[in-house]
Amino acid sequence: MDKIENQLVQPESTSTGEGGVHRRRFVRGVGIIVPVALTITSRSASAAGCLSASASASINLANSRPNRVSDGICSGRNLAYWKTAAPTDLTARNQQFSLIYINGFLGPPALSMEGVMNLAGVDALSAHLAAAWCNFFKGSVDPKILSLTTLQSMWAGRTAGFQPIPGNASVVWTAAQMVTYLQTTQLS
Asked: Taking the CB of residue 136, how many other CB atoms lie within 10 A of it?
């Protein structure tokens, strides 16, 4: 007991002996290694892959189920692709935005999905929701991952926030977080 009390009372900083140097090196090493290890092993829920919005919103997704597999197909195209998509994809791009997203860009004139994506100064969420609709319409993203209801709920929550886990008001995504999630459903 006296030995433990002596170690607690005696300052180590004045020690020039081998023990004091080694302890300081150990503490300094641990101080560097632990934050690096935590950074390497922790992953963002948004970067978890092809998952539904509610699964992506799980706080401990990476640690709670490290063996989690994707919920379905995510081979959607990105916003840049849909802005200049091939003529075969015009059906999706020509859909009127306000028919899918209530009170969205009514006009005059009412804008198509392509019009919203190419509109100068449009917010990122609106443009990404237009691209997400095109991916949904083309079947590039599994409905378990990105449903029409989810897209419409994101649009409805563009200012007040979107609840990715229905009924759970403690998790609310901002427009930027919704855009980040939508990007996880795209390959290119």
From this structure: 22
Question: pLDDT band for position 49 (50/70/90)?
Answer: low
Q: H helices within 42-123, ranges in order?
A: 53-56, 61-64, 79-83, 90-93, 97-100, 113-118
Q: Rounded to two decimals, what is the model's pTM?
A: 0.64
Residue 99 CB-half CA count within 13 A: 10
Domain limits, the chain: 2-41, 45-183
Structure tokens at 44: 């963002």
Q: What is the pLDDT of residues 77-86, one digit of tens each?
A: 888 888 877 6
DSSP string, 112-181: BHHHHHH-TT--HHHHHHHHHHHHHHHT-B-TTTS-HHHHHHHHHTTTT-B-SSTT-TT--B-HHHHHHH
Who's near 80: CB < 8 A, 6+ residues apart? none
